[in-house]
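[step 3/7] fold_predict: job queued, chain A
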Amino acid sequence: MLTYPLSGSSSELVINVLTMVLTEGKPLDRAYSHNFSGMQYPPAELARITLVTGDILRRLNLYCYLVDIKVEDIERTGSKLLNGWHLFHDLDLPKMEYALQVDSAQFAERLEVAKAQPALWDGCPEWLDELGAAQLGEKWPAERAALATAPKRYIRANSLKGTREELKQRLTKELVATVEVEGVESALEIRSDSALFKTEAFKQGYFEQQDAGSQLVAAAIDAKPGMRVVDACAGAGGKTLHIAAQMQGKGRLLAMDVEQWKLDNLKIRARRAGAHNVETRIIASSKTIKRMKLTADRVLLDVPCSGLGVLKRNPDSKWRDTPERLPVLIELQKDILQSYSRMVKVGGILVYATCSIMPDENRNQVDAFLAANPHFTLLDDELILVAEHGFDGFYLARMERISEV
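[step 4/7] structure written:
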């Protein structure tokens, strides 16, 4: 956390990002990109700005309650919110022009009220607290609290270029402090406010930024050199590149998605990583999947989901239309699992994964699929809980096709 207040200009930048996210509906990463473009801030100051912005979004309802403002008024009352955030963390107030002041007596009264309301204290909206309690029961309070904390920075050593230890040494020479992550053999945790993407190690493809929990999902594929592997919901391709490293660049790795721009970005990342066995293919229609029936040794379905396991990293999702979208997402997951599983050949492995921690998107989907598809059998599954691991939250299930039908 900060030890001294934000500058006036940094405070204004935080307010601009919050306004774009909360009133214009921009994703947080795009709001950062828009506001940071052309800025000459030192990496440490950008880290401070993102730290404050992220913490406010993780517990937005708490901070709004403490200073008695409404989320929809954030553009007008953002300075009051920033002042309240600094008061909460016992920091001097930032020097902003025309800032709205906070009534310190009222702030203190509201602080005591908030301490007695765990969900509010954890920055949890009512809909999410109800869902979490219903889905996770006694495990939910710890998860709710963990999701309100700042995410750690993890990277994955690209074994196509070198070992984790070699990467650690390279980064040390570039003044990037790291520690190895126990239980995730490819992961390093970043312990310094370094400009990672300006390092030579990154430019030369020695690592990718990827949460340690995400690395566990890709590791479950257990792809071997020479296999035919399909990442059917590849997105920007973080797990695709991890699988390519498992395959040692040998065999055929097909990355598929419904959005071409994501695949275009993946091509750039694959070239930098030296992942020369990656092919990309747009999913133009159901025929794209049908033509690949019973052809793949491994299929990864990292399906679209609520993202409720990665709220530390994407806290703006708490304040979007997630509860309305959830039933639609669950139906989409069901359809993808049923349709895309046809690509797995007999003896092949299907991995179903989400970045959600809710059973309705996870084990309940798998159980329903297995009940309707006896030609698949469950090998194992794992729920990576935030409070238990410290990583982002994920779920994965490995299923084997035992017959054609």
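[step 5/7] annotate
Residues 322-340 form the longest helix (19 residues).
The chain has a mean pLDDT of 95.
exit 0
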